[in-house]
Amino acid sequence: MGNEITVDDVMEFQGIFSLMPAFVFEGVAKKKKNLTKKFESTIRAYLNSASEEDLNKIRRVLNTDIDELQVVMGEAYKKTNDKHFKVLANPKYKEFVELNFNELKMMMD
């Protein structure tokens, strides 16, 4: 089971999705908007400056089942109290998470 993701793995995303306040982030999640595309240049700059180890963590997270991922996002929320994680952990925003993570996968290919 060495492929299971951890809270530390999902923490790599904190810098990406904290580009906007959590209450705005939740509103965007409700509307199922493609934030990855909107912030593409910022995300690319972040990815270009990330270490290979950090990029591998991101890839592992992106290749994780969304249901499992949302459980870990919930754990990250409990650990950090970052409301962005609370939004990402909410099952009603599963489609938003899938959309944006799939877009990020394509960006990293």
Main attributes?
single chain; 109 residues; mainly alpha
Summarize the structure in words.
By secondary structure, this protein is mainly alpha-helical. The chain is built from nine helices and no strands. The chain is globular, with a radius of gyration of 13 Å.
Mean pLDDT: 91
User: What structural class should be given to the helix and strand makeup?
Assistant: mainly alpha
Helix content: over 70%
Please state the CA-atom Rg, rounded to the nearest Å: 13 Å
Choose one word for the global shape: globular
Overall number of strands: 0
**How many DSSP H or I helices?**
9
Q: State the low-pLDDT regions, or none.
A: none
Order of helices and strands: HHHHHHHHH
Task: Give the end-to-end Cα distance, rounded to a whole number of Å.
Answer: 25 Å
- Please outline the major beta sheet: none
User: Beta-strand percentage?
Assistant: under 5%
**Count of structural domains:** 1
Subunit arrangement of the protein = single chain
Summarize the structure.
Helices cover 72% and strands 0% of the residues.
Topology overview:
Blueprint: H1 7-10, H2 14-17, H3 22-30, H4 35-38, H5 40-49, H6 52-62, H7 66-80, H8 83-89, H9 94-108
